[in-house]
Amino acid sequence: MYTRQNQKNLTSSQRAKFVRAILKLKSKGIYDDFVRMHGRYYVSDGDTGLRVGHMAPTFFPWHRRLLLEFERQLQAVEPSVTLPYWDWTRDNSKTSSIWASDFLGGDGRASDGQVMTGPFAYSGGKWPISVGVTEEKYLTRQFGRPDRPIGLPTKAELDKAMQDPVYDTAPWNSTSSTRGFRNRLEGWTVGEAQGGLLHNRVHQWIGGHMTGATSPNDPVFWLHHAFIDLIWQRWQRMHPKSGYLPARTLAASDPEHGRVISFGEPMPPWNTKPSEVMDVQKIYRYEEY
Q: What stretches of 30-112 adopt beta strand conformation (E)?
């Protein structure tokens, strides 16, 4: 078992190893395979076919499996590396340590959003963007969404979402808003005034490449989702009798039949069932301070 640390507690050596491992995966083409995978399985309510990565109950287990696979690739390069997490309820400044020039670099410039600092700046020559729907070959960010300013989610907003004891509810998509922890946390239809848009608001606050289906183009994706994974783990501890829903395959008469994965059905592309990633304490733990 290994430990995933809060990014603010990483030593300079740990930061360097993490960055070096990511850059190595990028140079080998492995990193962009993960970007493509995330884009491929980003299926919205209005699209046809299976919905697995987002707007579905599998949001948590699918990303947990994705993080594990990415972490294994990092460890194949640097065995001591684990995925750090970013607690955006606490480290919520544009100058927080996560944005340091020796780690993830900072905000994009005002003119075009291009990130100019850190190891993932285009000028460094090691981070060309080749997967996505935009023309830019450079990483972009726009902290705080200047055209429609927003802030990062607060601890109080997160705590409110954590109180919901129900995992998810029909229709198991982005409109599941009256009950259900999954969509309260993922944040599609619950407005900012009600403390919603938690996961999604972080993507929007960072801006640039983090706002699209190929959001892993920005390495902060992994630290954001490591924290999402930790939040899910905390929710599981808070509500030990509240299991994954739907527990069984939806009936053929259900409009979401064939679009939503139940507890015992496999998630592509790994054929891993949600039931197989509910308990990961034998694989990793989180440093929670």
A: none
